[in-house]
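# nightly structure sweep
# worker-07 picked up a monomer target from the shared queue
# config: single-sequence mode, recycle default, output format = structure tokens
# input follows
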Amino acid sequence: MKITQLLCPAAAMLVLLTACAESRPETADAPRGILSHTCSAVPLTKGGETDGMNLLYAGDKLLLGGWRGDGEDYSLVLVDPSDRRFMQSALPDVLGVAGAARQEDCYLLLCTEHAPDGAEYRYTLLTLDDALSVEDEQDVTALWGEDTWVYDWCRLTDGTQLVTSEKGLRIVSPDGTVQDADCPGAYAKLCISPDDTVWVVPDGMAPHRLDRDTLQCTALGGDGLPREGHNDGYYADGEGDYALLYSDGENLCGIRTDDVACDVLVDLTASGFAKVSDCAVLENGQYAVWETDTDVFRKSGWLLTPRTQEEAARIRTVDVAAVEFYQDDMARINRFNRQSQDAQLVVHSYADEEGSYERAQERFEQDLLAGVVPDMVLLRTDDKKLSNKGLFEDLYSWMAQDPDFREEDYFMPVLGSTAYKGRLECVSFRFCIDSFAAQSGLVSGLSADTPSALLGLQLPEGMTYFADDTFEQIVLQRLGSYVDYETGTCSFDSPEVVALLELSGTTPKEGNPPDEDGFMGDRALLCRCPMRCLMDLRAVRGNALREEDIRLLGIDPSGESSGIVYPIGETAVLASSENKDLCWEFIRFCLNEENQYREGEVGGGFPVHRAALERKLAYETREGASRGYGYYAGSIPDPTQEDARTVRALLEGELTGALIDDALSGIVREEAGKYIAGDCTAQEAADAIQRRAQLYLSEQS
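# output follows
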């Protein structure tokens, strides 16, 4: 029986399925998450506990290892899949684990550590009991070399050890004899068949069988396998009748070497797994899969149990339509599909069918109004004009009917920032806060960031309000101050708008670039500060303005605060849907604490769940937080508790939901641009905006 499973951080089996750049929409070619229909999936790990971990060993239990989300001690978790019992232990001095093996009643781990006395690395063979306590440790650096980075390690049933590195493949027999094999490539993955046959798989190459007598490697070939030089799949240890497991991103296959064939074990097409970094077949026919999320820096384990055809046929489907689906949309949908036992979301992307975004948007709205879209939609903009049509369900009523939904768990004003005529027809699972930053000595006493309050500021000589266009910064970001969709009226011809236009006309057009240099040079009074995370606020504090002078407008020591809330995507349920209960089940799933924390864990927006927000703030104010934040990495100081208090003050204050309407914004920009160009007076521009905007609103009602 095989006792070795060598799936480790350095030698992880990566299966690229749906990963894409964050700025690109996620395609949805397949009709549904097929994996969720063919297999039921339950989590192997507990939320928040296993960030960045990997599957190290598979048998009747799973040994997981890796770094926690705080980036500190290497951690081990022992999971019993039968009852999901967890046992956890820490290895404080370990940099990584190259491989693990099961030996009778203990575990063996080859660990990489920092070497003393200036050497690069030290390798220690740890022996752990079933309680994950260290029973013995042996320094084996001399076997591999302190200047070598070990890529993969395994131990066979007879005690033979094998390791791959940039130097090739080294074999250590039980008596201590060291031999170097003729390896076809460096940094190769090691896989073991149930009969202890060793397979060496260099990156991009076919598996090679190792002859332990001659130390030669021979490539496995055949019509049923990927061709040499065109092998983009990934391999893992074999189980049962299969010498190797193989995945090409569409299927998880078992490779039989007697007739050189691949048998499909699990159909991974459209499974929603962005990357499967490890996998294993358990003794009872279940599959353990280790997934890397695309939206956050974490991994999660799933236990997959094949469904019968009868079980799959009983699953209800819910159609979800959108102009386009982005990475975070699909991650959210796929998480729901994998955990749901009786429902699956089926995605319909209009952008996949049309030649342009504009055409996709047009047809999406046409189908909505015609009643073609059956269940649920994801919206980006222009939702208010759709709310006039009676298309969507009131989600406030579902909250009231749900005994498990507690309003005290949420920032209800934020959750309800998209409400229309007392009805919550769209819900956003995360949001951005928009405010203005300024040097506190110049704006002392200002407790609101409304357009009228900003007009009351005294502009010091030689300064301008913003480094770029004042009118666009204030009016377009606070569009809801002048538009009332409920009555279908607007007030763009007010003296306030005329004054803002005149103020915008004084903004210097050159020598005042719209970046932090304009503020550090004391030329601009205000800086717009849209925040999806504390790093955004910290960037303004640390770069745009002097650290000691920064304050956000709308934050008043007396407790009165104001700001704008921008939803990051919205979900609506069709009033005509026959699956409203399942639609609400999906929304509740997205609103639970764990999913809310995952949504905004790494810069993705603030959650509406109070406990999830506190976890996010704690995560972002930890020591060394800024080092892991993309373009912020290492360039700014870590966020502070003062930054966290600033965000809390905004959330507990008078927040206004942002009005997002591309057509209306286009009218305002066009007519204001005529004044800025000198083609009309400020009053004439304001009157023109009023006429066109009022006509537009009348057409929408």
